[in-house]
Amino acid sequence: MSEKSQSIVKKAKVNCLKLVKQANSSHIGGAFSIADVLAVLYADVLTFDTNDILSKNRDRFFYSKGHACSILYAILAEVGFIDHEELFTFSQNGSYFTTHINHNIPGIELSTGSLGHAMSVACGAAYAGKIGQQNWKTYCIVSDGELDEGSNWEAIMFAAHHQLKNFVLIVDYNKIQSFGNVKDVINLEPLRAKFEAFNFNVCDIDGHDHDAVFYSLSATFDNKKPLVIIANTIKGKGVDFMEHELKWHYKSPNGIELANAINQIEEA
Amino acid sequence: MRTAFIQQLMAEAEKNENIFLIVGDLGFSVVEPFAEKFPKQFLNAGIAEQNMTGVACGLAKEGYTVFTYSIGNFPTLRCMEQIRYDVCYHNLNVHVVAVGGGYAYGPLGVSHHTTEEIGMLRTIPNLTVCAPGDSIEARQITSLAAQMQGPSYIRLGKAGEAIVNTSAVSINYGKGIQIVDGEETAILSTGAMLKYAYDFIKQNGLKNSLYSFPFIKPIDKDLLQGIAKKYNKIITIEEHQLSAGFGSAILEGFNDLCEDGVITMPQLKRIAIPDIFISYAGTQEYLREKAGLVLSP
Question: What was the pLDDT predicted at B160?
Fold first, then answer.
């Protein structure tokens, strides 16, 4: 299981670095914090068919971290939704590969970029799946800073009230938001206790441990609660000079930094 | 109008099991018959309009035609970005229904005066914007919404408005209706001002023409072309701010026709709320008068 996801994430992270460098765009830090979770999702968890993208039986995956789209685009290229040539039109004039995620790209359910939107839409899909007695599941990834948006807590209450057992929420808890540390801006703690109080099952894991991600996503519970996975992650994971650094929310690497970063990813 | 809406929605749900109604914890003594008859197609999302609108999008993505329902500004201004980005950008079959357009909830205060939303909503691509003038228009617009592709906004009045249209009228998408064929000035009305405008014309010997525009977007340019050619003076009346509302849409329509060389610019008077909040209580009639929504002979 881990071999495939490890191979995907390595290639996708290298391409992601190149995309961000080429487009001089932001958010490499938040892209790398969620990269391992995305790789496990696409390698081992989600049901999808790249030849029948809107297949009725596909799992629905909503990516609320629209700003960290470069890594998801790169992973979609690795698993066959798009080809690499298209991928490298990222941010160019006339390209659908906007630097916040775009539903005009095959495999993307919903455009996001304004925070606090996707979870509600995901809940609507999960509700439809529940009343239609469908087997597919609905997954949604949100960032940690994004949980400042009140609309998310409306959706969290909705999911728990309607016992959306087919809904899995993943929080990319990299502890840094746009303008500072999460604990200093609007502290989310105690986050696990908050979700438990809101009637969610909670898995609190290392979001870079592929086995832990896989087993938490596959966990079953003897109740009707939705599941949240608090993925404890590192912003800029895998590149020493990017890790835990707020500036990599904004900066794109220069030539030397790019070579250094690619080297670190490939050697890991 | 709200009863007409719910009755028509039930008729649509009877034919189509994908019709879905979500309310924002409002609709007491209105939506119960729908909820009882179609429990699998009904949801009370609670007092959480942003989530209600997002959930509507998720349901619409799965094949439902979803009507969100609340009062005043709550299903629109409160969740404007969900309407723009989730509903309209993704061009989903979500129909936002607001009851209590204009000053229908007059005594409740400014929170409940629904007087800016048309201006805000009509700038959003893919969105059809409707304000039916009576319950006959409300029924037919509900039916059109249930069958169309893409989103709409439907501004309803409250309850008990008098009917102006005859039951034989047939409303087509994006089209206005001539109600009175007079000789002099043409009065163009949208939403629940229709009854007031009709009564005014009747009291003045049916000299003026009256047109109802249940669609503000798209605006009926064919009808505007005919009106511009027939009348020297035209008046618009609406229960909305002067800025960016129905009168503005008409003015833009005339301007574009003029630019195309099809008409010469007619003389146009726009009756609308003159960029004010009204802080005191009052019935709908009282507040309309205080805001200057008055036709004079």
Answer: 82
Both tokens assigned to B278: 């009204």
Yes or no: say if B207 and B183 are a contact pair by the CB < 8 Å rule: yes
H-run or E-run covering A52: none
DSSP state of B295: -
What residues contact residue A75 under an 8 Å CB cut-off, 6+ apart? A8, A9, A12, A35, A38, A39, A42
So what's the pLDDT on residue A1? Answer: 54
How far apart are the C-alpha atoms of A142 and A167, rounded to whole Å? 13
Q: Determine, for residues B58 and A125 on separate chains, whether the beta-carbon distance falls below 8 Å.
A: yes
Q: pLDDT under 50 in chain B at which residues?
A: none
ipTM of the complex: 0.97
The string of pLDDT tens digits covering residues A120-130 is: 999 999 999 99
Closest B-chain CA to A64: B86
Q: Are A64 and B85 in contact (CB under 8 A)?
A: no
CA distances from B140 to A102, B136, B218 (A): 35, 6, 16
Locate A126 and state its tokens: 């999960």
Q: How far apart are CA A152 and CA A141, in angstroms?
A: 12
DSSP secondary structure letter of residue B187: E
**Is the bond into A190 cis (omega within 30 degrees of 0)?**
yes
DSSP single-letter state for residue B114: B
Helix axes A150-161, A118-131, angle to 10 degrees: 10
Phi then psi for B100, rounded to 5 degrees? 90, 40
Q: Where are the beta strands (DSSP E) in B152-249?
A: 152-155, 177-180, 186-189, 209-212, 215-217, 233-241
CB contact set of B98 (below 8 Å; sequence gap of 6+): B70, B71, B72, B73, B74, B75, B76, B114, B117, B153, B154, B155, B156
Tell whether A111 is within 8 A of chain B (Cβ).
yes
Separation of alpha carbons A34 and A72, rounded Å:
9
Rounded Cα distance between A38 and B279, Å, is 53
- Please give the full DSSP string across B45-101, using - where no structure is assigned: --S-HHHHHHHHHHHHHTT-EEEEEEETTTTTGGGHHIIIIIIITTT-SEEEEEES-
Contacts (Cβ under 8 Å, ≥6 apart) of A35: A9, A12, A13, A16, A71, A75, A237, A238
CA A227 centroid distance within chain:
16
Residues of B whose CB is below 8 A from A122: 58
Cα separation, B228 vs B217, whole angstroms? 19
Residue B36 has a pLDDT of 97
Rounded to 5 degrees, φ, ψ at A173 are -95, 80
For chains A and B, count residue pairs whose Cβ atoms are closer than 8 Å.
Answer: 87
Alpha-carbon distance B80 to nearest alpha carbon in chain A (angstroms): 12
Three-state SS for B245?
Answer: coil
What pLDDT is attached to residue A66? 97
